[in-house]
Design brief:
One of its GO terms (biological process) is response to zinc ion. Involved in the high-affinity zinc uptake transport system. It is found in: Cell membrane. The protein is mainly alpha-helical. It has one domain: ABC transporter involved in vitamin B12 uptake, BtuC, CATH 1.10.3470.10. The chain contains twelve helices and no strands. The mean pLDDT is about 85.
């Protein structure tokens, strides 16, 4: 069954939603959308470094994404204007990544796959990385769920409850970095933030609790993967953007449903 490229693509996309669903909910609650962009853009530099040093793309991407996440997390507590810092870091990392890629023969052709994703090229080894990484992110979020929620709602309340808001923020940024490393081959650096945000935003319109929103975001993400792959096959469109487009369509439907209720 796994010899079918479409089956592997479907399994890879659905596996990714195990992480993007609950993590995307926290991204929305904490207004971290730009943070996701910065980490994803930095991943391109990781791709270039991985090719340059002969490392695994996943390893290079994860290393740079972690460095970006830790840098932003440390700056967030020092009074810097975070939208400005994130803007500088995001675009600088993307620019350095593209410049570095220009020095590597053969990479410029492949780079578009990392910018926009190439889910149809997912291999059996990729499936192991995707499902393993997503399961790890989902397990960490489930383990720290109550603490993360408390710190998200009110940091003073979290401190009064014996929690360290900085630790909870660090858990989130590390989970985000791992998700970016796993997702870059599926939807690409330019669309990772969209896959995190759009399904969660759609689920938010219908959810009655944080838990149902996280579950709903996961289910909507999986539907977007299935619908996007079918649309890509039927209309010969790029698979990654098609998945995000279907997720955006579902978001529009949830807005209509909410207005009628």
């Amino acid at each position: 069954m796994l010899d079918d490229f479409l089956t592997r693509a479907t399994l890879g996309g659905v596996g990714l939603t195990l992480a993007t669903g609950p993590l995307g909910s926290f991204v929305i609650w904490r207004r971290m959308a730009y943070f996701g962009d910065a980490t994803a853009h930095a991943a391109i530099l990781g791709v270039a470094l991985a090719y340059g040093f002969g490392l695994s793309v996943y390893l290079g991407t994860l290393a740079v994404a972690l460095a970006m996440a830790l840098t932003v997390a440390s700056l967030s507590g020092r009074g810097h204007a975070m939208d400005t810092v994130l803007g500088v870091l995001a675009h600088s990392a993307l620019a350095f990544g593209l410049v570095a890629a220009s020095f590597l023969s053969g990479l410029r052709v492949d780079l578009s796959a990392f910018l926009f994703g190439d889910i149809l090229a997912v291999s059996r080894a990729d499936l192991g990385v995707i499902w393993g990484g997503s399961a790890l992110v989902a397990a960490v979020l489930a383990w720290r769920w109550q603490g993360l929620l408390t710190a998200t709602v009110n940091e003073e309340l979290a401190q009064a409850s014996g929690l360290d808001p900085r630790r909870e923020r660090l858990v989130l940024v590390l989970a985000l970095a791992l998700t970016v490393a796993v997702a870059i081959k599926i939807v690409g650096a330019l669309l990772i933030a969209a896959l995190l945000i759009v399904p969660a935003a759609a689920a938010r319109q219908l959810a009655r609790s944080p838990e149902t929103m996280a579950l709903g975001a996961t289910l909507i993400g999986a539907l977007a993967v299935l619908g996007g792959l079918q649309a890509s096959l039927a209309f010969d469109t790029p698979a990654g953007p098609s998945i995000v487009a279907v997720a955006a369509g579902i978001f529009a439907l949830t807005l209509m449903v909410r207005r009628k209720t």
